Prior knowledge:
Layout: H1 4-7, H2 11-19, H3 41-50, H4 59-71, E1 75-82, E2 87-93, E3 102-107, E4 118-120, E5 123-125, H5 133-148, E6 157-162, H6 170-175, E7 184-188, E8 195-199, E9 201-210, H7 225-239, E10 245-246, E11 250-251, E12 253-261, E13 271-280, H8 285-299, E14 314-317, E15 326-327, E16 337-340, E17 357-361, E18 375-377, H9 378-395
Helix pairs in contact: 3-5, 5-9, 7-8
Signal peptide: 1-19
Keywords: Hydrolase, Metal-binding, Signal, Zinc
Cofactor: Zn(2+)
Amino acid sequence: MIGLCEAVLLVGAAAQCWARGSLDQQPLRPEKTHLSLTHDLIGFHKNLTQIESITGNEEAVGEWLVASLSSQGYSVEKQYVEKKPARFNVLAWPGKEREAKVLLSSHIDTVPPFYPYETDNKTIHGRGSVDAKGSVATQIIAVNKLLSAGKISPDDVALLYVVGEEVGGDGMRAANDLQLSPQTIIFGEPTEGKLAAGHKGNLGVLLTAKGKAAHSGYPWLGRSANEVLVKALAALMELGQNLPESEKYGVTTLNIGKIEGGVAANVVAQDASATVAVRVAEGSPSYIKDEITNAVHKAVQSFLEGDMKPEDVVDIDFPSSGYGPIDIDHDVPGFGIITVNYGTDIPWLNQTVEGQKRYLYGPGSILVAHSDHEMLTEGQLWEAVGGYQRIVLHALGKDPCEDC
Ligand SMILES: [Zn+2]
């Protein structure tokens, strides 16, 4: 809870401050009088985290964010990514200018399942507490603190919170239509309070085996899609040991995330499929696509009869074009540097300005994000408020703050 005088910047609140005997204070700067900024980090983070927002169901948390930022005096724009269910990105700016030099951004969707907000001795648990509502809350409080202290001007910054990061990045892809051209973008994801120098690339693969059903007593009358799939996946596991590596990002890894196939033990399986995620440490996705295609086609040769081709027994789909490793700016003094193995929305937002800087930073650890024990501490949140302030000041060419 923030006292009225501490919250400052709202005309009405300011008037009450004067009435309570603060007559020796300087008058508030007139250009900021429309703002009524909260500094209640823990409460703000709690409100965000309490609202379930698994990808596809971001409407409630988006509405809460719009209401909160509006009530603080921000101008807020909703960008609909989907009408039914209603899913929208939230763009907000505290000054007169929608177009700001520095854009802070993160995502408001989470992975399933939902775990409720719980707090115990300054440790906060709950789905999204780390990924990425910790980043959303600390970015907003950091900006509010800089504005309240007069360290930045309201026209210096804007905020962008997107839907759909956890599934394909449709929110950030849509954000390209907002026509923003900031000089610097600060992306919020859990980096343990360090600056990320880059993250691995990503390539998704969907294998669909095509079988022919038959009685299991007469398997030669059919073709088992399960067997086709098992052979193909075995080949991918072997390939996974030999994919490109780099000094910066380590080895390319391959995860068989989901397998489905068949209907019963006594039926030769007609259908089977698997989804695979490749985390790319080196090179282009097209090289890895070729390697995967060759390995799978070779693996299913024994199922081909007559003039059949490998495509007749297995489809290989790449649901998106994928991307190689992403290098990220990390030139702000005073931070530890890491590289991370997860994907982000960074590749989906086109670089619209020559020399545009991109940073990746946020509280909490990716090692607990997406798990049933997602958690961080209040101390980590406050540390990130300081970290974001330092990155924003650096991006604006201003002196680092001593108290953040
Ligand atoms: Zn995230």
